[in-house]
Write a structure and sequence with these properties.
The chain is of the alpha/beta class and 193 residues long. The protein is 44% helix and 19% strand. Helix 1 packs parallel to helix 2 and helix 3 crosses helix 5.
Amino acid sequence: MNDSVFDKEFDKIVLGFDPGTQIMGYGVIGITGKNFEMITLGIINLKGLDNHALKLSKIHERSLSIIDMYKPDEVALEEPFFGKNVQSMLKLGRAQGVAMAAALHRGLPIFEYSPKKVKQSITGNGNASKEQVAGMLKSLLKFSELPKYLDATDAVAVALCHCFKAANGDKDFSPKYNDWNTFVKENESRIKK
């Protein structure tokens, strides 16, 4: 069990991130047996920062803060989707990478899920809208009102998708990276020497 900010004991805590360069969502799910409970959800608001490097710095700082506060056992992230705007995709990938770096810095295993897989696991429809995902989460996790930014519920969806895969003993269920050495080994071509 974690030594974390809550009084309640959980068997496992999962932190989900929905990477973004304007608004980045996060959600924390507690697991007890086969029961899932939303602990918190929120956003990292980056809209006031014009410089991309400053945004990445804030993502790193806040990700570490969230990890240190909630002491998750695992981190689940939504994979960047491939859009038409290459610059946007690169920036989104950097935001995801910074959140991954924060988790790796704290020694946490990382799991990645495509947006389609997340939507499928929550709603049964891989093409569901943000509103449909949020509505289903509201029903499943019994929270009273939706947040202003659905990036937060998207992050909860990523965490819950991960919980579902773990609970169902999915054969593809394994961390993408466990530590820096694994990351470096699998990404040698991206490292300058």
